[in-house]
Task: structure prediction
Amino acid sequence: MKKGTVTIHDIARHLSLDSSTISRALNDSPRVTVKTKERVRKAAAELGYRPNLMAAGLRTQRSKTIGVIVPWISRHFFSSAISGIEQVAYQEGFRVMICQSHDDYDREVVNAFALFDNRVEGVLASIAMDTTSFDHLQRFKDEHTPTVFFDRYPPGIESCQVVIDDFDAAYRVTEHLIQQGSKRIAHFSGPRHLNIYRDRYEGYKKALADYDLALDPALVFDCRLLADDGIKGAQYLLSLDNSPGAIFSANDLAALSAMRYIQKNSRLSIPGDIAIAGFSNSPSTSIIEPGLTTVDQSGEEIGKAAAKQLITEIRGEVDTLAQEQIVIPSKLIIRGSSYKQ
Amino acid sequence: MKKGTVTIHDIARHLSLDSSTISRALNDSPRVTVKTKERVRKAAAELGYRPNLMAAGLRTQRSKTIGVIVPWISRHFFSSAISGIEQVAYQEGFRVMICQSHDDYDREVVNAFALFDNRVEGVLASIAMDTTSFDHLQRFKDEHTPTVFFDRYPPGIESCQVVIDDFDAAYRVTEHLIQQGSKRIAHFSGPRHLNIYRDRYEGYKKALADYDLALDPALVFDCRLLADDGIKGAQYLLSLDNSPGAIFSANDLAALSAMRYIQKNSRLSIPGDIAIAGFSNSPSTSIIEPGLTTVDQSGEEIGKAAAKQLITEIRGEVDTLAQEQIVIPSKLIIRGSSYKQ
DNA sequence: TTGTAAGCGTTATCAC
DNA sequence: GTGATAACGCTTACAA
Result:
C-alpha cells in the first residue's frame, strides 16, 4: 500500500491462487467459480487493489480511451458536447482524454500526437480554424483508429460527421431577418474553408437570393469571430454610407460584442434600427438585453451522437468505415434583438 | 504502418542496431554517439515512429500525466484554470487528463479512481459541492502522489492550496455595497463546509460588523448557487416585508439570474433600489446591463501556479510535502449593478 | 476450473 | 558506445 501499488500478484499470493485466476476473476470470466470470484473481489477490495490501465492497455492493445480535440473547452457549445461525450463514453466503459487546440493548427497537431502516443482507440474532433492540412489526422486513418468529426470537419474526409444543418439554420435566420423587414443584411463570417462557416454563408446567400435581395460583398465581414472581431465588424458597418439594417453573425461571441458596441457607441436602437442574430445559443445570449436571436445547436446531443457512432466503429459493429453524416436538429431561437413585434 | 504500429524494434531492425540503443538514442542518452542518434532520429521519422506511452509508463512507473478534477469545465473560472494548467504542464512535458465532477460527490469518486487507474503522477483538484468525505483523495496521499488543490479544498488536508483571499475579496465587495449606501445586504451562499463559501460568508459578516450593521440571518440565502437558485433567492427576498437594498451572491451565475429576475418581475431599479454583486467575473457579467459588479479571480494564474507547484512536488524538488497556501491576487470589479455614482 | 508461460513496448542493469 | 536480458502489470493461449 505504501511501497508500490498492490497488483494482481499480491492478491494471488494472499489467496494462494495464480495471478491469471485473479485476472480472470476480476474480468468476470466464465471460467472462474462464482465462489472464487467472490473471494477475489473481496480480497481485492480489502487490499485496495486498482487495475493498472497502462499495463492492461499495453497487453490488450486497447487503451479503453477515446480522445477528444476541440477548439475551446470554454465555449458553451463544446463544453456541452464534451458532457454528452462523457456520458456515453463512461457508460460504455471508455475514458475520455480532452485536448483543446485554441483554434491553432500547431496545437492541434501536438494534440493529435499526444492522443496517438496514448494509443486512444478513437478520436472525436472538431477542427481548428487554422487547420487546412490534415496529415496529423490522416495518421489515425492509417492505423485504423476510427475518427468521428463533429461540428467542424475537414473537406473530403472519408469519416462520419455529426453536424447540424448549418445551411438550413442560416437560411432560417436570414429569412427571419428579412421577414422582420431588413433589406440590407450584413454577415460576420469565419474562414469559409471550414464547413460550418461556408454553409452558414451559403444559407445566408440563398435566403437573400430567394427573397430577391442582392448580396452586397461589402456587407460580408470576414474574420475569426472573436470578441474583438465583433467590435471591428460593428465599427466597419457603422462607418458605411449605407449601413445595414441587420447583422447575422456566424457565432454568438462576435454578435454579442457587436451588439454591445452598437448599444454603447451609437444611437441606433436594436432591433428597431438594426437587428442582430448570432449562432449557438450560448448562455450570454439570454442574458443580454434585448435577448440575442440565435440558433440552438444542442451540443450535448451532438456529443452523444458522435460518441455513440465512434464507439460503434471502435467495436467494429459497422461494416463499411462509415462515411455517413448524422444531422442533429437545431432550432431557431427568436429573441428581442431581431423581433420587431 | 498498417498492421501494428512501428516500435523501437522495427527501427532497430532497420538500422541493424539493438532496440536498447534505439531507446537510448531517442531519449538523448549521453551514452550514444551523436552520429548514431542522428541515424536513429532520421529512421524514426521516416518510419513514422511514435512512442507508446503506455509501455514507457508501465516500465518507468511514471505516466507523465497529471490529473485534473473540476466541478464544471463549462464555468469560465475553471476553463481558464485548465488553460493555465495546460500551458505549464505541456511545457514541462506532462499531459493533462481532465475530469468533471458536475459538483457531485459520486462522480468525483469515479473521477479519482479513473485518474488513479491511469497512474497519474499528480492531481490538481477543486472539490465538488457535495463532497464531505475525502477517502477518495486520501488514496493519492497514501501512494505519495502529490495533490494540489485550487479554489476549493478539503478541510484539514495536508496539501498545498492555491486560492485567492476569499475572505478579503468578500469583505471588499460588502464594504463597497455599504459605501454605496446599502444598509440591509443579502447574501447568497453555497454550502459553508466548502472553504470558498465559508470565507466569502465570513468576509461579508466581518464587513457588516465593522460598519456596525446587523447581520440578519433571514437575508442569508443558502443554496447551490445555480441559475434557478438565483431566481428563488430573488423571489424570496422580494417577498420579505423589509426587502434588502443589496445582494452579494457568492457566484456570478446566481447573481445574474437574480438580476434578470428582478429586472423582469419587479419595478425595482438596479442599482437604485437594489444593488447586486457576484463573484468570479464570468463573461456574462460584462454583457448584462448594467454590468455586474464582481471579483476577478484570474483562473489562468491560479491554474498556472497550481500546476507549477504540483510539478515541483512531482519532481521531488520540495523537501517537506508542502502544505503552504499560495494566494493569488484578486480584483474587485465595480460595475453599474452596484455603483450609484 | 485453475496453473503455466509468453508477450505487449519500453527502459534499466548488466556485460562486453 | 552498444548489445543482451529482464522486468513493469496485465491478459491469454495452452496445459493440466
The radius of gyration of chain A is 25 Å. The CA atoms of residues 221 and 236 of chain A lie 9 Å apart.
